[in-house]
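If it is no trouble, might I ask you for a protein's amino acid sequence along with its backbone structure tokens?
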Amino acid sequence: QVQLVESGGGLVQPGGSLRLSCVASGFTFGSATMRWYRQVLGKERELVAYISNTADYTHYADSVKGRFTITRDNAKNTVYLQMSSLKPEDTAVYYCHAALTRPTYRIYWGQGTQVTVSS
């Protein structure tokens, strides 16, 4: 059974930091490209960050570039999102996403973790 379990969300003041974690199970984590998305109620889900399966390539949305860092630990089947200099507009539910291409194309989503940036 495939699972992506996010944790680390919460309430933080503007300018603060949080680290999200996503622990994967049920598939070969080292073969998966990983992404973090976020969604505000009533809006489309937005890609925040991407990391390749070997962590040699990362990509960020312009809105978080320089503030967020995506990393992964393939030995722990875990992907992280370090968020710094948080702004109220970062408030959203953050979702972990996995994509595999072999033997077939498959994607998996976590259940989401709420991040609220407010004073």
Q: What stands out?
A: The two ends are 40 Å apart (CA to CA). The CA atoms of residues 95 and 112 lie 4 Å apart. The chain has a mean pLDDT of 97.
